[in-house]
Amino acid sequence: MASKLPVIGILILLIVISLFNSLRKPLVIFLMVPLAVIGVTVGLLSMNQPFGFMALLGFMSLVGMLIKNAIVLVDEIGLQASEGKDPYHAVVDSGLSRCRPVSMAATTTVLGMIPLVPDAFFVSMAVTIMFGLTFATALTLVVMPVLYTVIFNIKSPK
């Protein structure tokens, strides 16, 4: 599996680059992935679980969910900017308008993982997804707009 992960990662990156026809937007999207490591680490350590094969599968699923969340936010910023909004207000309004859908999707996924916690086989995967998604969603809703404004050099209007 380790030999296939770089190839799959590059394919996903190429798809996102072709989707946005840009390099900076995929950069913002993929910089959200390391935020999941914080939650995964806290979760696995607090629940005394190893980072084994099932946790790795959970982490790969988690990366897909985070990329989807970041794409939703970046796409909304682009839509609002294309409607003629000031770039700064497009970033702020996009963060506010996408907060509920992104949070609800994360919440339903986390709640769906709860039945797997007592299972000895799936517990590390469930903990990885639950904690990683909770931390990364909260951080994504704050860090992604900030990172977007830094990478695209957007200043607040006077």
TrEMBL record:
Signal peptide: none annotated. The chain crosses the membrane at residues 5-21, 27-46, 53-74, 121-154. The keyword rRNA-binding does not apply. One of its GO terms (molecular function) is xenobiotic transmembrane transporter activity. Pfam families: ACR_tran. Keywords: Membrane, Transmembrane, Transmembrane helix. One of its GO terms (cellular component) is plasma membrane. Gene3D superfamilies: Multidrug efflux transporter AcrB transmembrane domain (1.20.1640.10). PANTHER family: CATION EFFLUX SYSTEM PROTEIN (PTHR32063:SF18), PTHR32063. This is Swarming motility protein SwrC. It comes from Pontiella sulfatireligans. The gene is swrC.
